[in-house]
Write a structure and sequence with these properties.
By secondary structure, the protein is an alpha/beta fold. About 35% of the residues lie in helices and about 25% in strands. A hairpin with a 2-residue loop joins strand 9 (about 215-220) and strand 10 (about 225). The longest helix is centred in the C-terminal third of the chain and has 18 residues, at about 180-195. It starts with 6 loop residues before the first strand and ends with a strand. The relative contact order is 0.20. The model has no long low-confidence stretch (mean pLDDT about 85).
Amino acid sequence: MNKDPLLIARGIRKGFGQGPGRVEVLRGVDLVAHQGEMNAIVGASGSGKTTLLQILGTLDAPDAGELLFAGQSLLGLQEKELAHHRNRNIGFIFQFHHLLPEFSALENVMMPGRISGAPDEKIRNRASDLLDQVGLAHRLDHRPAELSGGEQQRVALARALVLEPALLLADEPTGNLDQHSGQTVFALLAELCRSMGLCVLMVTHNLELALQMDKKFSLYDGQLG
C-alpha cells in the first residue's frame, strides 16, 4: 500500500436549506484513504452518506473544508477541470446501474473511454476484457433490458473500471440486489480493485460486507468515527 494518502478530506461541512429550517448534514468530516485500501462508510438512512460520497467525487461542493487528491487541492478547480478529474481518476458505481438502455453491454462499458477520447480499438479491447473478468463474455451484445439485475450491476462495475481509475466510489452497489447477486458483485468488486490497487470508498447498509473491508467508518451526527 502506498504510504501517501490518495484522498484527504478535512473539515467537510454541508447543509441544506435556509434560516431556521436549515439542516446541517455534514459537520466537519475528516477522512484519509490510501491506494490499495477498501473503506466502508456505514450509517443510518439520511445521515449524509451519499452527500459525503458526492463531495468526495466532486459531484457536489462542500460549504466548507478541504479536499485533496494525490496532494492536489480540488475545491478551487473549475468545472471543466473537475470533469476531467472525474473522468480520468474516479470510477462511480451507484445502487441503480444507470446503464444506457439503447446500447449493448460492451458499448456501455466503452462509454467513459469514448468520452475521454481514448482510441476506439484500445477501449473496446479493455471493455471486452473487463466484461470477461466479471463473467459476461457471453453477454457483450446484450442490452440492459436483456440482463438480470446482477448482470447489469456487473456491467456497471466494468464501466467504472474501464479507464483504470485510482479511486472507486460506490454508493450501495449491492442495495438493489438479492443476497446472492449482491455477494457476487461485491466479491468481483473486491477482487478487481485489489488486483488494480485501487482505493475504494463504499457506502453500504450491509454490515456483513462492511466487515470484509479494510476499514469501516460510521457516519453519525454529521461526523465520521
